[in-house]
Amino acid sequence: MAVLDSIDRKIMRLLQEDAKLNVKEIAIRLNLTKTPIYERIKRLEREGIIDKYVAIVNRKKLAPSILVFISGKLEVSKFEQTEEFYAGIMDLPEVLDCYLMSGEYDFLLKVMVKDLDDYHEFYSKKLSQVPRVSYVSSSFVLNEAKRSTVLPG
Q1: Does domain 6-46 have CATH number 1.10.10.10?
Q2: Chain segment 29-39, per-residue pLDDT in tens
């Protein structure tokens, strides 16, 4: 695990809030010079702490869509069999996130579709064909009360 000081954490928070900030702007906000900020950012990238830079798109501005959280169970007798499920999920562009879970369900998917008809098509022709899926329960998002990509700390 990487050792990060308060300056590293402040840099990461600023970049998570706005990845378009340049080194000069970060240096001004942290009351430091550009060179140490640049070197710290490069180190964070080299160490894989900063994985990549992305644009967060407002899905509501593009087209009508609904978010669906799908909990499910897998038919597996060996842990290695979950790889078949993962491979099937990777080919589904509607799946935004996929998590292996403990507890009542084996997996949780975050899925985006344009409407209920699209969801039905996704479920009946795609998700139901993914290897090892034995049961699913879907919950439809009514309102996003909080959405963040900024990690705590």
Answers
A1: yes
A2: 999 999 999 99
Q: Could you state, in order of their start, the residue ranges of all structural domains in the chain?
A: 6-46, 60-140
71-80, 91-100, 102-111, 116-125: which has the minimum mean pLDDT?
71-80
- pTM > 0.90: yes or no: no
Pairing of β 107-113 and β 66-74 = antiparallel
